[in-house]
Amino acid sequence: MAFSPKNAPQERFCAKSAVSKLTHASPYAHMPQNSPEYEPRVNGIRNGTDLVSSDLVIDVRNVSKRFGGLTAVNNCSLSVRRGSVTGLIGPNGAGKSTLFNIVAGNIVPDEGAVIFDGNDVTGLKPHQLFRTGMLRTFQIAHEFSNMTALENLMMVPGDQPGEYLGNAWFRPGLARSRETEVRKKALDVIDFLKLGHVRNELAGNLSGGQKKLLELGRTMMVDAKVVLLDEVAAGVNKTLLNDLASNIERMNTELGYTFFVIEHDMDLIGRLCDPVIVMAQGEKIAEGSMEEIRANPQIVEAYFGTPVEVA
Amino acid sequence: MTELIFFINQVVISGAVLGCIYALGAVGITLVFGILRFAHFAHSELMTSGAFFAFLLAALFASWGIVTPIPLGFVVLPIAMVMSAIFALGIDKGFYAPLRKRGAKPVILLIASIGVTLMVQGLIRLFFGAGSYSFFETETKDVFRVDLAWLGSTRPLVITEPQLLMIIVTVVSVLALHFFLTRSRLGKAMRAMADNADLAQVSGINTALVVRVTWIVAGALACMAGTMLALDVTLKPDLAFNIIIPIFAAAIVGGLGQAYGAIAGGLLIGFAESLAVFNWTMVLRPLNGVLPEWAQLPATLSFVPTEYKLTVAFVILVVVLLVRPTGIFKGASS
Amino acid sequence: MIRRSLTLFAGLFVLILVIGWAMGLPFTSSRLVEAAAYSLIALGLNIQWGYGGLFNFGIMGFLMLGGFAVTFISYPVNPQFWGSDGPWMLGRALIAFAAGALLVYGARQSDKIGIKGGWKTFVTVLAWFVAYCVYRSQIDPAAAYIEANAGFVGGLGGHPVLGWLFGGVLAAVIAFIVGKIALGLRTDYLAIATIGISEIIRALIKNMDWLTRGTLTVSPIPWPTPLPQAYQASGSDQFSSLLLARGGFLLLALAVLGIAIWLISRAYAGPWGRMMRSIRDNHIAAASMGKNVTARQLEIFVFGSVLMGIGGAMLVSFTQIFDPSSYQPINHTFLIWVMIIVGGAGNNWGAVFGAILIWLVWVVSEPLAKVIFDFVSYWSTNVGWGAIPEIESRSAQMRVFVLGLVITIALRYAPKGLIPEVVRRDA
Amino acid sequence: MALLELKHVVGGYGGAPILNGVNMAIEQSDIGVIVGPNGAGKSTTLKAIFGLLKVTGGTIEFLGESIANSLPDKLVPRGLSFVPQEKNVFTSMSVEENLEMGAFTRKDDFSETMQWVYEMFPVLAEKRRQPAGELSGGQRQMVAMGRALMSKPKLLMLDEPSAGLSPRYVIEIFETIVRVNQEGVGILMVEQNARQALAFASKGFVLAQGQNRFTGTGQELIADPEVAKSFLGG
Question: What are the structural domains of chain A?
Fold first, then answer.
């Protein structure tokens, strides 16, 4: 298998089923729930490991983001438990993607803080977050269109010696030996994703589904603490999606990866995610298992929709 | 008082003239950017070629023995503007439209506009050589001197006839542009397309027509700006090429895509350039009588030496980009 | 692909032979040395635009920096300057500059002592103003004194190759500052900003007479290799000593070019190039994959500018004269862009091919236009329409038109260039 | 003869086709609703009808005439109108100017139509001079619909009109759509709020992978257990 992390810490080994369900204080209340130990504003505090229980790997606290007059995320607080596959659902325009971009460092929030693995990472740049072990995929595939599929994967691992001019010029051996490793890993990932036949194709020429797979593949190139998946299923065919889902499950249960997933495909959410967080109008409105969410009439109205009475 | 009049002559009038030219050039650039989303570098050549059209027409009129009360350059301006508009349409059809059709990125169009710059400039030089020409070889340039002795000034207020006409013509065309953009159907369609090209298309607006109108307006205004510049100084093949940076600065400072911003930006840069190289010693000289020997003012005391006038626009541009990246008026983000 | 490149280069070789036959060996050898320097400059732009997707329209500024650098290092020492008060006055100006910089830095840190918001802005602007005044108060008299008593600062009398290196260093320093300010801008803004910066560099070099002699020009600047006169002194005839000397210079230029190509290719073929291309393709995704986009873009901008600086220094060394007013955006910025677009952005051999081809087209179009004009003029005189006036000056302008025509045709029919970027497929 | 009829439409953006044979027929009295998972080609279908992407196979007929690959400036005068999902107002222009742009293809006097739109959306009459960019999401959606109605269309196409709106506005927008339909304008819309929209649809189309999967009246589709299971979230 391609994804054995070299030094996988034992505490990360934490399967979904093995963790007792957290008690969600009031999953169906319309107000964001702040546990008592949270302080409402913790901006500017770094490395405050005491701030958070080590159980929460992502902890979003009272985050708001406005674009012009539009409030995309409104005083939203939510958290992702270590070792879980947490789903994020909600109607279009609920602020899911904005929240994702805030967590991934692509957008800086107006207010509030993002705590990642016990450190305040609010305002850190995406490349800095990558080093802390957070990886993401994009809703609209962000492939490197003028590079081959294989190169798209090979560029991912950080701190490749050959990425520095000095090494590239004067210590080619160092660069080359790492390059061989990276290449082997990329080929493994490509085989796993069944993209072997297109590995020399420019990524820009791949189909939408293949681009999505490539994005997922990028997250497999390094050992991440958390992987953010933004609508990974859209445009991927059912068979492949099954493979993808079982792969995500395996990465989660066997290797201890944590996943945070935005998804519209309810089957996939139902199969993978526990808990599921529901957002609407920029706020978290509920959290719970898929069954609990489905059983809640208010959420069903807000998200799944109920028939309108029409004369 | 003499000093104030001097200041007006040196800064206000020359700043206004420069500002008008920058503003008219920048409006064209900003309109093209708003509609077609690329920085049209060859705008300088539209200005220069427009000036040469006007020059040729004026020479033709003079050879027919037509004498007018105002400089011929202004009389032939409308015809030259029509010619420039057609020229601009031709350039678009020949060089930009095929690239757009292929779906080329704005950067490629920008490079193409460099190519057009070189071609047009090469052609102009081919026909007119590298020398300079003047509109006032046969006519005289009238200079108005308003005697302000009654205000206690020993200097008159000096403005040349072309400068005065230039300011009037600019004000009139800016007003006309304003009414065109806010009242006419096509003008509104232009604003709509600059705002949201996809939605404009969905609304049934004939976007190809809007593109044509944009080139017509941009070409005509460029011709006006070029001709007025040539009337104020002399006509050379690199007439506008040398001032394309301040013009772009004006468009960017005003917010790319914003017609009113471009006018404000043009005036701002025009005044700033005049003010920056203004020699304050001339105004502050009365102080020399009061100041002790060792603190006498030097012969020249300006913010920036005259040689560096061109850099003023650029410094303003950089400061604006750093402080407010979308320009003073919120510009388009492509 | 390789076959196509070889064919094109073979064609280029034939073109060089034809030009050599038609224009004579001295002309052709000079053009070849210049073509080597332009190849180096084109490689610099290829790195910035082809690899990094950065829009540099300020090439002229970096060429001027290189030219100044080699003049300053290799021109003989000016005893009049060093014997006067000039160095001392310049030292004071330098101290004033440092003091000003310190003042501005202090003002920018003023929030630490509780000056905030609008007041901080005010203090910063005031600090800039004061620093500017302090510096001007020292540099203006120093400049006037040097110009009056010593002409200009003069050179250091070092080896020209050291000057080339200094050209690279100077270009790197300026590129670093420019990049810090401007690289965050959108493509079109970056284009305008870099043009503006190169114009400022030109204005400075042209008008700082005390340092560069400005429009008075500096010459003769020594060669790194023996001059024709040296061969002549050792007994060669005029023609062969000219060729020997130029051949020597050409060899040195080719050696520098070779080293540059070797270094670039080595880096570009590996992870460095892959990372740069990923940033060019999609900088958002590259940042999410842990690449420090800002720092890397700065790196590639500086790298490219270094090559431009060295190339600019080589050109000035070769022509032996540093004339700031001879620099024009058309000849020194747009020309390079045409080379890259025609040759093929993202491909080093494309860049070299484009540089040589376009440089030859550029220098040949004038005599060629003259021949055509003469022919047409002869014909039109015979028909009775009269001759074309001022053929000499008109032919000189022809090349600008040809340049524009070439780039528009290339964009239309070969948008990726004649030797396009190669997709790195895995075997 | 149906108002709009699609037969085996195939099309895409140049690469692999996104639509692989879509069939649809809409009368002027109909409210047609297209539902289906992401990437099924719902919005693409509307764009194909409106000439915004290349149709390579099949036929699209409007009032009995083929309109495949005609551009909007030809379609709007014939009676088709389209409200895109996002960026569907001219933010820098006033509400009234937005409406005027909708009537761009009309040469006659459209003040009556504007009155009609203002009656339908009284809040827009209040804000007629305000830039559309300053309005709330729901009001913008009204401006967008108003703009599309200004050309007096026979068929109004809407791409996810309820996207991003709070439940209250969703109901309001749906009620407005029904009212517009009662005024004699055919409706064809794409919806994510599938169950809610199918409830008032006279025709429903479930698309998957660029093809019709189920077709029927809205009620039929809601009642179909298979549709409910796979496409309506249980």
Answer: 20-303 (3.40.50.300)
Whole-number pLDDT of residue A302: 59
Look at residues B147, B151, B116 and name the one whose alpha carbon lies nearest to residue B45: B116
When computed from its CA atoms, the radius of gyration of chain B, rounded to whole angstroms, is 21
- Quick check: helix, strand or coil at residue C347? coil
Structural domain count of chain C: 2
Cα of B252 to nearest chain C Cα, Å = 8
Looking at chain A from residue 141 to 200, which residues have their Cβ under 8 Å from any Cβ of chain C?
Answer: 142-148, 150-152, 154-156, 158, 160-165, 168-169, 172, 175, 178-179, 182-183, 199-200
- For residue C361, which amino acid is it? V
pLDDT digits (tens, 9 = 90+) for D127-156: 999 999 888 777 888 999 999 999 999 999
Identify whether residues C59 and C87 lie together within a single domain: no
On whether both C287 and C384 belong to a single domain, the answer is yes
DSSP string covering A80-148, please? EETT-EEEEE--TTSSHHHHHHHHTTSS--SEEEEEETTEE-TT--HHHHHHHTEEE--SS----TTSB
CB-nearest to D82 from B185, B191, B202 is B202
- Helix or strand or coil: residue C405? helix
User: Is C146 inside any structural domain?
Assistant: yes
User: Domain check: are C120 and C72 in the same one?
Assistant: no
Chain length of chain D: 234
Query: In angstroms, what separates the C-alpha of B204 from chain D's closest C-alpha?
Result: 4
Residues C49 and C122 both lie in one domain: no
For residue C299, give both structure tokens: 């790196």
C151, C179, C207 — which closes off a domain?
C151
Residues of chain D with pLDDT under 70: 1, 14-15, 38-39, 164-168, 232-234
Mean pLDDT throughout C324-349? 92
Choosing from C151, C169, C184, the residue where a domain stops is: C151
Does C226 reside within a domain?
yes
Question: With an 8 Å Cβ cutoff, are C402 and B122 in contact?
Answer: yes
Give the separation between CA C35 and CA A291, rounded to whole angstroms. 73
pTM (predicted TM-score): 0.86
Pick A146's closest partner by Cβ from C275, C281, C292.
Answer: C281
Q: Are residues C50 and C127 in the same domain?
A: no
Residue C175: which domain range?
A: 2-76+155-413
Element (H, E) at B187: helix B185-195
Are B195 and D71 an interchain contact pair (Cβ–Cβ within 8 Å)? no
DSSP letter at A222?
S
From CA C358, how far away is CA C339, in angstroms rounded? 6
Tell me how far CA of residue A213 lies from CA of A87, A181, A229, A248, B240, in angstroms.
19, 21, 11, 12, 52
- C94 and C38, same structural domain? no
Q: Which among C270, C286, C292 is the nearest to A162, CB-wise?
A: C270
- Look at residues C307, C317, C133, C311 and name the one whose alpha carbon lies nearest to residue C225: C317
If asked whether residues C162 and C192 sit together in one domain, one would say yes
pLDDT for A23 beyond 70: no
| Cβ–Cβ gap A92/D160 under 8 Å | yes
Percent of chain A with pLDDT over 90: 21
Q: What is the CA radius of gyration of chain A?
A: 20
Burial of C303 (0-12, 13-18, 19+ CB in 10 A): buried
CA distance A76 to A263: 19
Do C137 and C179 sit in the same domain of this protein? no
> C240 in a domain, yes or no?
yes
Read off the pLDDT of residues B260-297 as tens digits, 9 standing for 90 and up: 889 999 999 999 999 988 888 777 777 777 777 776 67
Contact call for B130 and C394, based on CB within 8 A: no
What burial letters (b/e) apply to C104-142, b meaning 16+ CB within 10 Å?
Answer: beebeebeeeebeeeebeebbeebeeebeebbbebbeeb
* Within-domain flag for C54: yes
Report the complex ipTM: 0.81
